[in-house]
């Protein structure tokens, strides 16, 4: 059984959202990779990441109805019910974000926001060289890598369930049930 789409009348992921996704990923990975080698680029990629998060927050509050946070971030009972159904192999395939994915998006955005904010604080006079904040920033980055692993695991599971290569949707824009 397939639940209704949560992506719009033409069942496509808008180009703006796909570009956001890849730019956010590139900003995070680039900032991480350049952290010790090229500090200025690391900082600018962090600010780029923060700007992208701000754009997604605004888009999630005022963009197309099907892509607003209120459409796919549901209450804990629905999330729990979906998780139990998924565990027992009876979760419906759906073309939009599933209840777990909605909360994963929110969690990733909050964590990335904390990474960007703590990174910014480290550039200020008040926190320059603060070892506690540096450790917290590094811990947040490690947490984000864990979230990325969970994200990729979820996409892999959804791809196996739907028998589709779901990451292609972030290239082509065409959504498939998952």
Q: How are the strands of the largest sheet arranged?
A: 1-2
Largest sheet entry: 2 strands, parallel
Counting helices, strands and paired strands, the structural category is: mainly alpha
Give the SSE string.
Answer: EHHHHEHHH
Average pLDDT: 88
- The overall number of domains is 1
Instruction: Please give the count of helices.
Output: 7
Determine and state the CATH class. Answer: Mainly Alpha
Give the CA-CA distance, first to last residue.
Answer: 11 Å
CATH level-two architecture: Up-down Bundle
Strand content: under 5%
Model regions low in confidence, pLDDT < 50 over at least 5 residues:
1-9
Give the % helix: 55-70%
Broad shape: elongated
Q: Care to count the β-strands?
A: 2
CATH topology: Fumarate Reductase Cytochrome B subunit
Task: Determine Rg (CA atoms, Å).
Answer: 18 Å
Domain Cytochrome b561 bacterial/Ni-hydrogenase: 13-173
Membrane topology: Multi-pass membrane protein
Pfam families: Ni_hydr_CYTB
Keywords: Cell membrane, Membrane, Transmembrane, Transmembrane helix
